[in-house]
Design brief:
With 217 residues, the protein is of the alpha+beta class. It has two domains: 159 residues, no CATH class; 47 residues, no CATH class. Helices cover 30% and strands 33% of the residues. Strand 8 and strand 9 form a beta hairpin. Helix 3 packs antiparallel against helix 5. The protein is globular, with a radius of gyration of 19 Å. The mean pLDDT is 94.
Length: 217
């Protein structure tokens, strides 16, 4: 088993659909027993409006617009708690129209030294062609999209760039993207809930394995 581990990591769920942002108030979540009453009272609300709702708890940040629900945590022990919160939220709002889901993992890895850091950039983005037109070219960001292998609609995209938080570090963002089947008369949210329940472990393992394969390969 690999001993290479990220120095920092976070994850978020992004749902694309048709939302009513003003519903997503901390008091609504505590009333539905999705968070504790204490968390509801202590939440730091930035805005709750018909067009956008944003609030933070100690372990989670939520931002909802009319088209996008984005909930995230930077604390790895809460990854599964975040999953359960998303499931509970949309089991309650089971008629919400939803058409896309992203389960996204972000990881910062420290390289051993500057030479190793540059070597990874050269491997992922060879400079031979760029040396002809640019002085000292360096990789800023590279994204690779792959087909799903589970029979579901969507794709998996891995993005790599220099870390903004760790010196001589590298940042990976893995976007595990799902699209629900178009079905007249159905909101799509039940299919999304099923995907989260049934694919969570597989999605998490795949997202963690991609950086390791690149860094250790």
């Amino acid at each position: 088993m690999s001993k290479l581990k990220p120095e920092l990591q976070s994850m978020n769920f992004v749902l694309v659909g048709d939302f009513n942002p003003k519903i997503f108030h901390p008091f609504w979540f505590s009333h539905q027993r999705l968070i504790s009453e204490h968390e509801g009272n202590e939440a730091k609300v930035e805005v709750v409006h018909s067009d956008v709702s944003i609030f933070n708890l100690e372990w989670v940040r939520l931002q909802v617009t009319r088209e996008r629900f984005d909930i995230s945590t930077t604390q790895e022990p809460y990854f599964e708690v975040l999953r359960d919160l998303v499931i509970g939220t949309f089991q309650t709002l089971e008629h919400t129209p939803v058409k896309m889901l992203g389960i996204n993992h972000q990881m910062h890895f420290a390289m051993k030294n500057e030479d190793e850091w540059h070597a990874l950039g050269h491997k992922l983005a060879p400079k031979e062609a760029w040396n002809k037109v640019l002085k000292s070219p360096g990789m800023q960001k590279i994204s690779i999209k792959g087909l799903r292998t589970d029979g579901l609609k969507g794709n998996v995209t891995a993005s790599v760039e220099p870390s903004s938080k760790i010196k001589h570090g590298v940042f990976f963002n893995i976007n595990d993207h799902y699209e629900v089947n178009d079905s007249e008369g159905k909101s799509g949210v039940l299919e999304i809930i099923t995907i989260i329940k049934e694919r969570w472990v597989e999605s998490t393992e795949r997202s963690r394995s991609i950086p390791l394969a690149i860094l250790e390969g």
